[in-house]
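Readers outside the structure-tokenisation community will struggle with the description of the input data as it stands. Showing the layout once, in full, would remove most of the difficulty. For illustration, here is how one protein appears when written out as sequence plus structure tokens:
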Amino acid sequence: MAAEKLLARLVAVADNGAISLGPDIVVDGHRCGAVARVTTHIHNDHTRGLSTSLRRLALHIATPLTHDLLEAMGYRVDPSRRVDVSYGAKLRIGDAMLRLLPARHVPGSAQVVVDIDGLLLGYTGDFKLPGTEPIRGAEVLVVDATYGMPEWRRPWQDEVEYLLPDLVNDALMKGPVNIYAYNGKIEEVLLLLRSHGVDAPVVAPRRKYRMLRVLEKHGYRIGDVLPEGSAEALEAERGGWVIRFRSFSEWSRRRRLAGVNVKLTGWEFQAPYRWLNTRDLVVSFSDHADFDQLVRYVAEARPRLLVVDSARGGAAARVFAEYARRRLGLQAVAAP
């Protein structure tokens, strides 16, 4: 009962995914009456209601990179409402002091910390480990639990980041490589490939091309990236030594493109990767924490009250909240 009263007073997770941290701040969803919205990163389930928020709320807060990526995606953020907050910087909103902290997920991702009269409220957003420092000392911590079931483990997660560049390089020896992934994951994978010396030209749809150029503006090395349909892209594709980035939703239509097809998914738990046939490869690559990483994060954070986001996590959130209560000794609830 005490946990539920504390939750109702300080934090709420709505059915639409909007996370309220105090009366004035809403995160990753729209809420009427809020003063400011924070968007932690560019994934669709965290930009719900964003157009409405951009019209109706006084402030929109994000990292500078996330703001620029949103604009490249077609969102129009009024300069008078746009508030860029770099990692670690503080911003006062009414009685609250807000900070954004790094989250290892997709470029620009952030965790949110709100201090109201000495009460610390936190939201992890999406993250994975290592590379995301837990929010410690929170009165209430809202956590993502996309992979909150005990059977959803990927013990090879770090290993895949070395395997994937080798798999792509080997496939390039035979011809084009088509990589199917979601927004954000595409950007993350390009940076991973470049950091491991995979320097083949990349062809991307026009909007994705603009988003990749945003990374370049923010100092990331993206190498040779070409807009789909351009003369340069067509020439590179004729040569065969090229990587094409495609939307994850296009996987079912992969036969229309020549070359090796690579699907990146976090829902592969059997092996780091597996060939479906000589042309189609599934790679267990996720930008989310698996179950073991979730446990490690909350065990280190140890908030007074753990709120597991079930608007996105569904049944896994309820399972994880029960695990946190029973095995970690935390006061934990799933919400909504």
Remarks:
- The chain has a mean pLDDT of 95.
- The CA atoms of residues 325 and 332 lie 6 Å apart.
- The chain has two domains: 2-151+289-335, 157-284.
